[in-house]
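Worked example 3 (structure in, sequence out).
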């Protein structure tokens, strides 16, 4: 199943969204590490939290940027499931093939950002709850 020219994603816009998301992620990591004092006295837990902030920042900008400004990728998402396997939780996203390797590659990036956002926000909410209520 191929796509017509009018259904093609805007690759230039997708690259701009991706570059913006990477820049936001790097700035989030640097700012988080700086504000938590990790450049002068590094500790493991604050560094892990900073990396989680980075994941949220990058994935939120990329996912929501693609969703709002390049919604053409959303039509390739067929189903989302959260699967619990023992002590692990996996987000499984089923996509349909477009017939175009470039589109399928961008859909894969989009799905990765969606799953990264979902899986990085949950631990931060739990850590925030522990911080506020402990």
């Amino acid at each position: 199943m191929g796509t017509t020219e009018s259904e093609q994603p805007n690759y230039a816009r997708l690259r701009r969204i991706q570059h913006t998301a990477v820049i936001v992620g790097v700035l989030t990591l640097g700012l988080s590490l700086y504000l938590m004092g990790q450049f002068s006295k590094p500790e493991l837990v604050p560094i892990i939290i900073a990396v989680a902030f980075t994941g949220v920042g990058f994935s939120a900008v990329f996912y929501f940027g693609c969703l709002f400004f390049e919604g053409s990728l959303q039509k390739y998402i067929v189903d989302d499931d959260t699967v619990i396997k023992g002590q692990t939780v996996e987000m499984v996203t089923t996509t349909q093939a477009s017939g175009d390797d470039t589109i399928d590659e961008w859909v894969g990036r989009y799905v990765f950002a969606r799953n990264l956002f979902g899986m990085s926000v949950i631990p931060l909410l739990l850590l925030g709850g522990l911080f506020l209520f402990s």
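Notes: The radius of gyration is 17 Å. Residues 30 and 38 are 10 Å apart (CA to CA).
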